[in-house]
Fold these 4 entries.
Entry 1:
Amino acid sequence: MLTTITPQTNRILIADDDPIIRHLVATVVKQLGYIPVTVGDGREACHLMKVDADFKAAILDMSMPYLEGIELIRYMRTEKRLKRIPVMLITAEPDIRLLSDSFSAGATVFLHKPFTPEQLQAALRMLLGTRSSTRRAA
């Protein structure tokens, strides 16, 4: 029997090297009715997006092995298939300049760690209710 694959436009890519954060974000994504697709570093996220651009949104950690979140956002904004995907950048870095740098790179929402599940839910709602031309901080 031949099975056809239908697009999963309700999938959200989650890239973070911390398994606890990945699990927390995936749990909140599921609670909001979306399908989390998780990877452990920027290179995995980049490879996945090269072969599959069908994501409703992406949630990227700033500091990941091989390819940092902001570099991944810059790459996404140069690819026609990936430009439409709104991106949340999360970080524990204390440097306030990251906020403006992330928006300049093309992030839609910025969330600072540590965050509560409620803060993440609010940031996700902002992310999913916006387009790449609208920038917000959570």
Entry 2:
Amino acid sequence: MKTVILRPTTVYGGGMPNESLRSLFSAISKKRFFFIGSKLSNSCYISVDNVVSAIARVIDQKEKFIEGPKHCDAYNLSHDMYYKDFLGLAAKALKVDLPMFRMPLSFILTLLWLNETIFNVEIPLTSKRAKTLARRSIYSSRKFEDYFTWHPQISHSTTITDCVNSWFNQNGAK
């Protein structure tokens, strides 16, 4: 049996049960957000609509894979862009200014460690989230895009706006 494995990065959409992206957008709307780490930090998200588009592409081109020499192949699937641009689209959809304040990751991790070991105050920012917001690595879809002649069909601008409209009222409130 020939198999295609699609390995999407963080999938998002208006109906997603995970609250992480909604919480991030909420922090932006309430002006409680700041950047962590490099200006070149990458967001590794893909909309559910683009995942569906990729699956449809595999189905449409199944002969290409069935006739090929491989029995199984795995493909990463992502729609990476810089966090500053991704979150800028969210701020635009929320109709707020995106803060430009930025803190070094090492400083934030130190503060979080101090909080965990001494103060134990519950805050939404965790070490894992801080590291994610500072991530410089990418999750390349190039192999899939090249083999199946595919690229994300729907822009982040559209899908983020759809999420904001689904998650927040017109004032950006949850």
Entry 3:
Amino acid sequence: MRQLLIIVIGIFCINLYGQHNIPISQIVEKQCMACHRNPMTNAPMIYGQKIDFLEFELFNFRDYVRDHEIMNQVMEDFSDQEVKEIAGYISSRPLFSAEVDDHPNANVKKGEQIFKRSCFQCHQKDNSGIGPIIHGQRTGYLESAIKSFQSTWYEPRPSRVNMRSFTDMLSEQDILDVSAYLNEQ
């Protein structure tokens, strides 16, 4: 059911901007946020992220460099300028955090220790770090993201090379713990 919902929302979003009569702000607010605020999806919270990070990721989705069935289709018809406008709008919005998830099997204190030992240098609660803001993200999204760094390595995402030394050492429980800690921030 969850996958069907995601597919339906994705199809609904495809080529919305191609109509050229919908402002970027409306596309983001009504269409993008249908997934990126929806607790039924595993989409990250994107408001307030650094513009260069957003542009990089959106161009990768648009150009099919980063593989994500829905995001590839959603972004494929946007021009370079439109991608930059979308990233600029999303970046200009205040940070938005997910609700705290239920994660009874997580050790949040251990997650905090892992974060402070391995992650905080790059991932700050604001845009002062070199990495994206991961505080307040959904536990499931964070778990998936960390596991993706463990399992896939492709260019041009240099962050995969940087992240490898931090993620390869994490067990399933470590991933749950640090994800739960970050979700609660």
Entry 4:
Amino acid sequence: MGSVSLKYKSKSGNLTAPGDVDLGAMIPIATVTVGTSQSTITFSSIPQNYEHLQLRWIARSDRAATQDFVDIRLNSDTGANYAAHLLYGEGAAASAAAYVSNTSVGIVFMPAASSTASVFSVGVMDILDYTNTNKYTTTRTLGGADINGSGRIVLGSGVWMNTAAVTTLTIITDNASTFTQYSSFVLYGIKRAGA
């Protein structure tokens, strides 16, 4: 198989080698790892110089049940200003759901106290165009966990019906429980290519 040479235009319009082009980057902003248990995780004073944000996590809840949910609030807004659409699968079945007038967005499954010990969920949420004050803030989420074949995977989209730039993320559980030890959340800023 022959080699392929790619050329790109730089900001000045000159052709450059691929290694000379800034294709954007993910920059870690902050990390929170739970020490014992914690009911709320907050990222505040989020820098406003990125195009998008990405939140990644592993999480488990101490709720006395088999499952709980990771929810996110933007700018500490506790009003019914969030909506979401979800597709999820639980082994042999697939389902869809929609939520309106919620007080948070996210709704991503995580194991709880009655689930298999030491199993955590994983999740990734993109908070798109988070500094744009001309539209509502939208999110897309992928997450899930396997609990010996009885887990769940979720693909979701959400909206915060507010045009303010996002400066704070508050992460909570859906059932007033707490995140268990070793749950971890990392916030990244995604640079615009060429920025």
